[in-house]
Design a protein that fits this description.
single chain; about 300 residues; 9 helices; about 35% helix; globular
Length: about 300
């Protein structure tokens, strides 16, 4: 069994190299394409091992997409579904912290073995590849996209009902690589009520639509907060405008999630999987229903 601890393991797993502390190796190794590598994710999906691949993103940082990804995975797991998370935000990974997970990853001979959360959610993340959690990942775009490809094609995910991709912000090379390389069933977009957030997220929505990625729906995060004294619901960022975005794009508003202090507290302690709420349940219900509808629609076309 070999340990996957540094960027030198991108592409081909070799003997333990010297730690690079987040800096790229001098000669980036070559990652195998998912389409060409035996056991890569496309072949696994053909064999029915990964049923649905769902991207969760926003195009904008700070709107809570990683928290929503982790919460959604946890809620689906509570229903008895098998769910994995690929942390595609290579330079700003958050999932391991939220779920209280550490590396390194290992290779048992069938590909990289993902780390497993307390609730049984397999996760891969660049955070597992640095010895110091505060070490920056100082890589150029091609190396980042190469790692994304390796995470897809070189990970032994096993049988999954859902693989959730925690997407990075922006509309540059990493999202482009994901959209053009990975057979995504659709994408969920996380927004906050402010016009600025909506403007940026629309760029990501337009990019996904232009690249023929199905828009599954939007989530209004941090929609309100409950006053701890009078229990009044306060729209901290003003009236929600996300419903209008959903109507504009002809997609559903999957759920409105509150700004809950418990999410921050549990996330800081690495125990976000313990959080539950009616709004989160509604989000999982809406997503499963939308994916089922999409699956039936695709089957009917075939």
């Amino acid at each position: 069994m070999r340990y996957i601890a540094t960027p030198a393991f991108i592409g081909v797993v070799t003997a333990s190299p010297e730690p690079t502390h987040g800096h790229p190796p001098s000669e980036p190794p070559h990652a195998a394409s998912p389409r060409g590598r035996p056991g890569g994710i496309l072949q696994r999906m053909d064999k029915g091992l990964i049923t649905h691949v769902i991207a969760v993103g926003s195009g904008k940082g700070g709107v809570g997409k990683s928290s929503v990804t982790a919460l959604l995975a946890s809620e689906l797991r509570r229903r008895g579904l098998t769910v994995g998370i690929l942390d595609a935000d290579i330079t700003g990974p958050s999932i391991p912290k939220l779920l209280g997970m550490t590396g390194p990853l290992m290779d048992a001979g069938e590909g990289i073995e993902p780390a497993i959360s307390r609730a049984g959610v397999p996760v891969v993340s660049s955070q597992f590849m640095v010895e110091d959690e505060q070490a920056p990942v100082i890589w150029r775009g091609p190396l980042v996209t190469r790692l994304i490809t390796q995470f897809f094609g070189g990970v032994h995910w096993g049988k999954l009902d859902y693989l959730l991709l925690d997407m990075p912000p922006g509309t540059s090379d990493v999202p482009l690589t994901v959209f053009q390389t990975i057979p995504i069933d659709g994408m969920v977009f996380v927004l906050t009520p402010q016009d600025l957030a909506i403007m940026i997220v629309k760029k990501a929505m337009n990019m996904a639509r232009d690249l023929h990625v199905s828009l599954l729906g939007v989530v209004e995060n941090m929609s309100w907060i409950i006053c701890p004294h009078c229990q009044e619901k306060i729209s901290l960022f003003g009236p929600g405008r996300v419903a209008g975005v959903a109507e504009e794009y002809g997609i559903p508003l999957l759920s409105r999630l509150p700004l809950a202090p418990a999410v921050s507290e549990l996330g800081d302690r690495g125990r976000l999987e313990e959080f539950t709420s009616p709004e989160l349940t509604a989000l999982a219900d809406a997503l499963v229903q939308k994916v089922d509808e999409l699956t039936k629609s695709s089957a009917a076309v075939l």
